[in-house]
Design brief:
With about 110 residues, the protein is mainly alpha-helical. The protein has helices spanning about 5-15, 20-45, 75, 80-95; strands at about 60, 65, 100, 110.
């Protein structure tokens, strides 16, 4: 199915509601861009598994500065069961990346030994 980014955004907003649909669309676009750029980087320079995208940054940093991050999504969901399940997945992603994030809003992730 081919659709424009605006059509996709409209579908996400209709399905998920405005706050979640808008964040999901922005994150999806950022993920697609990152995947493309990372693939180019790997092709040119190679890589190590420690390289991490900033999509798992905390929801806030530097006091009131809000980040576009996967950590926002569970808090924007209407269904508390689905939100809890998604929060578990976000927590797993953060653990696998070697960060400790408490409640999705830790402003200073701490490296842990893995």
């Amino acid at each position: 199915m081919n659709r424009s980014p605006e059509e996709a955004k409209a579908d996400y907003v209709e399905t998920m509601g405005e706050p979640l649909g808008m964040q999901f669309h922005a994150l999806w676009q950022a993920t697609a861009w990152l995947y493309l750029k990372f693939s180019e980087f790997v092709e040119l320079f190679g890589t190590k598994p420690e390289r991490v995208a900033r999509l798992t940054d905390p929801s806030k940093s530097s006091g009131t500065k809000r980040n576009l991050t996967l950590c926002n999504l569970p808090h924007l969901m209407r269904d508390p069961v689905a939100a809890a399940a998604l929060q578990e997945l976000v927590d797993i992603a953060n653990r696998r990346l070697g960060f400790v994030v408490i409640g999705g809003i830790d402003t200073s992730p701490i490296r842990t030994s893995t």
